[in-house]
Design a protein that fits this description.
The complex is a heterodimer of chains A (656) and B (84).
Chain A lengths: L20 E7 H55 L1 H26 L1 H24 L25 E7 L1 H19 L6 H11 L12 E5 L4 H10 L4 E7 L1 H15 L5 H10 L5 E4 L4 H9 L6 H11 L72 E3 L2 H9 L5 E8 L2 H15 L5 H10 L2 H4 L7 E7 L6 H18 L5 E7 H16 L3 H8 L3 H4 L10 H19 L43 E10 L2 E11 H6 L10 H5 L4
Antiparallel strand pairs in A: 2-3, 2-4, 4-5, 6-8, 7-8, 7-9, 10-11
Helix pairs in contact in A: 1-2, 2-3, 4-5
Chain B lengths: L4 E5 L5 E12 L2 E9 L4 E11 L5 E5 L3 H16 L3
Antiparallel strand pairs in B: 1-2, 2-3, 3-4, 4-5
The chains are: A alpha+beta (656), B alpha+beta (84).
Chain lengths: 656, 84
């Protein structure tokens, strides 16, 4: 690097407080490519400078010559004055010459010119490589294939980009449903009605977000820098889905969506949807790289398997099999593990309750009248998750220092019963915003891994299990529950605390705890005292709002899921485990108006819903209540004699 | 000459090493592109303004101007897109 290309940083400066903006995250291999291209860019810039200098010189010379020639022109002036047409021609020729000079200079010196030339070079290189491999002449030299009728790709101007702004959970759902659609298409089948309906609803062009703003924006052709800027700056947290279509496809879908909005949902329309949709034209990306990858796709670039995995991790695009890979960002709705065989459609499959923790639990009252039909959208839960456990210091260190991105990790902290009781008390205080400074420091100490590795026997274990991408959020949570249950079976719930993190976040998670502990200062203490510490040392954004709301929200979501998955017209079945944190208040239900925030209002009807009040607790500490509405069929499955304040944390695997 | 490296404090408070990729100008302002190792074999690429302090040393400052930011994103993306 030349001296004038370096930054003159103060020699003793060890850090710069203002770290700047992350432009992008790339796999290391791609960084090397960028470096190489930068180097080439520099060489080309130097050449461009040289050319610019030469051009300037040439211009000077030509100007000098022109000035000299002016004498000659003056000589002809007499003639010109008498012939206006000739004067016009001369002036025109001069203007053309000037414009041409300027264009040449500009093309050789601007960024666009550089990139255009660089692209051209790479294209040439690539076509040479291809021709070498195939042993054929370069396509540039070949005449056009006469037997292949030209099917012109729609130009950029002929395309419409529909850019959807989803909430992360919605995005996961869309990708999961699209994966089902892709699978069905591959198998030559149509997807089930529910999946189609749900996709319609999520991708509906008429849909509005929570602020009553449309969730979809349309761009004709290539979006301008202004549009890209708007996306980059206005929606930093939003995850995008870009659907590329022709104007005629857009209008077809518009009319379909309008029909659906008006309530005309017919099987035939839904079937046409599954055949009509062009899967290759839907892109799932994060906002920063959406358009970058659109271009990538068009270049037919091939990647190594490792590259593909890296891209999938960052951008959430399709894998080699053509399925969308859920991006790591969505692991908040985690976790665990393996894909089960999809049951054949229309095969009655009674689902058994999942394995449970050793703690005594109320058994769901089975009141089945007939077996429930499980569609591919509602897969049975696997009973056993394959877990690996690191127990020795070496194994734990290996797992922590080299976590794998395709695994989920569970750190099990083993405490003495007294310590666990103390932790319970601190949690209670944090929730009540009453914790003290010493409690805050204790709290960080309990989660500091190095503290648990002191002594001969580590007081933590690290479990891990593989994750897969084709699971719906509800399936992921079910599998997380199963894994947690298994872990609890191996560990004493009275002394264990499970902290679950994805491989992606494991190191930063632990580093955060460690750094916070090392630098316990007034600021950290104040954060802890506000009760936010719980959220800060977990890797779950939902928990950042506090443990109580997290549990309440999770529980409400769990219940909503049961509600939405249960067919309201079906007889009650023991398909789902019964939430154990239901108080006796549920035994005295009353019919109240529908609460929109917990229900899908389209499906809810007064005569099939019941309102119940549930209470939540951590250990023996009650942390709040939630009023929700559930279908009558679910309500009938609730156990009638339940103890108060079941330990929801342990039972649902939602420990810290 | 080797690539220039310098220390930065990341948002977690840790001091990490950054590698200067390029120093360039846009709209008359000096811009630095630099990389910092991320997790799992990923690398984060940053862009900052280069600003001289009172003593003539240079410091990095966050880019707040949208136009520059868009240019920076496009610039790196274009370079990445070139491929091998």
């Amino acid at each position: 690097m030349e001296e004038n290309e370096r930054i003159n940083i103060r020699p003793d400066q060890i850090h710069i407080s203002d770290i700047g903006r992350v432009i992008t995250s790339v796999p290391r291999a791609l960084l090397n490519t960028i470096k190489r291209n930068l180097k080439q860019h520099k060489i080309d810039r130097a050449k461009a400078r040289e050319e610019r200098r030469n051009l300037r010189e040439q211009r000077k010379i030509s100007n000098r010559n022109r000035r000299k020639n002016s004498k000659v022109r003056k000589f002809f002036a007499g003639i010109i004055n008498e012939n206006p047409k000739a004067a016009e021609k001369i002036a025109q020729r001069e203007t053309e010459r000037d414009t041409q000079d300027e264009e040449e200079t500009e093309e050789k010196t601007t960024k666009k010119g550089f990139f255009a030339r660089l692209k051209e070079r790479f294209t040439k290189k690539k076509s040479k490589k291809t021709s070498k491999k195939s042993g054929k002449k370069s396509t540039e030299d070949e005449p056009e294939q006469p037997d292949q009728p030209e099917q012109p790709e729609p130009t950029k101007e002929d395309k419409v980009l529909a850019v959807f702004h989803f909430k992360p959970t919605e995005k996961v759902e869309v990708l999961t449903l699209l994966n089902r659609l892709i699978k069905a298409n591959k198998d030559g089948q149509t997807v089930d009605l529910e999946t189609s309906k749900r996709l319609f609803k999520l991708l509906d062009f008429n849909r509005k977000g929570s602020n009553n703003e449309p969730i979809v924006e349309f761009f004709n052709g290539e979006p301008s820098n202004e549009s890209k800027g708007k996306m980059l700056s206005s929606y930093p947290q939003t995850q995008y889905l870009v659907w590329e279509m022709t104007p005629s496809q857009k209008s077809t879908f518009e009319s379909l969506f309008n029909s659906v909005t008006k309530g005309v949902i017919e099987q035939s329309i839904i079937e046409s949807w599954t055949k009509f949709i062009e899967m290759d034209n839907i892109h799932s990306m994060n906002e920063r790289m959406a358009f970058f990858l659109l271009k990538e796709k068009n270049r037919n670039k091939t990647y190594t398997e490792e590259d593909m995995r890296n891209y999938a991790r960052v951008y959430g695009h399709k894998n080699d099999d053509g399925y969308f890979v859920l991006p790591s960002k969505y692991r908040d709705v985690k976790k665990v593990t393996r894909v089960t065989e999809v049951p054949k459609p229309n095969t009655p499959t009674p689902v058994t309750p999942k394995p449970v923790a050793p703690a005594p639990q109320p058994v769901p009252e089975p009141v089945p009248q007939e077996p429930i039909t499980v569609s591919p959208a509602e897969q049975p839960k696997p009973k056993k998750v394959q877990l690996e456990c690191a127990q020795t210091k070496e194994e734990i260190m290996q797992a922590i220092t080299h976590p794998k991105d395709d695994r989920y990790y569970f750190i099990v902290y083993n405490h003495t019963p007294e310590e666990k009781a103390k932790i319970d008390r601190v949690i209670k205080d944090i929730l009540a915003h009453k914790n003290t400074e010493s409690q805050a420091i204790d709290f960080l100490n309990w989660y500091n891994v190095s503290n648990h590795l002191q002594g001969e026997t580590p007081s933590i274990k690290v479990y891990s299990t593989r994750q897969e991408s084709l699971l719906a959020p509800s399936e992921i949570i079910d599998l997380l529950d199963s894994a947690t249950d298994q872990i609890l079976q191996e560990n004493d719930p009275a002394t264990s605390i499970i902290h679950d993190v994805s491989g992606f976040g494991l190191q930063s998670e632990l580093a955060t705890v460690d750094s916070r502990l090392m630098g316990v200062n007034e600021k950290v203490k104040s954060i802890l005292l506000k009760g936010a510490a719980f959220g800060c040392i977990t890797n779950n954004t939902k928990r950042r709002n506090g443990f109580q709301s997290y549990l309440s929200q999770s529980f409400a979501e769990q219940m909503s899921r049961i509600v939405s998955e249960a067919p309201t017209t079906e007889a009650p079945t023991p398909r789902e485990p019964i939430p154990r944190a239901v108080t006796e208040e549920a035994a005295e239900p009353e019919i109240t108006p529908i609460m929109e925030e917990t229900l899908d209002t389209q499906e809810a009807t007064l005569d099939t819903r019941r309102t119940i009040k549930v209470s939540l607790s951590i250990g023996s500490h009650p942390i709040g209540t939630k009023v929700i509405r559930i279908p009558k069929s679910i309500y009938q499955r609730l156990p009638k004699n339940k103890p108060h304040h079941q330990d929801y944390t342990e039972s649902q695997g939602l420990n810290m | 000459m080797d690539a220039q490296t310098f220390k930065v404090r990341n948002k977690d408070g840790n001091i990490v090493e950054a590698e200067l990729l390029e120093r360039t100008t846009f709209n008359g302002k000096d811009i630095a592109f630099y990389s910092i190792d991320g997790n799992n074999d990923m690398v984060d690429i940053y862009a900052s303004y280069i600003v001289k302090d009172n003593e003539g040393y240079e410091t990095l400052q966050d880019i707040t101007d949208e136009e520059t930011l868009i240019w920076a994103v496009d610039y790196i993306n274009e370079l990445a897109e070139m491929g091998e």
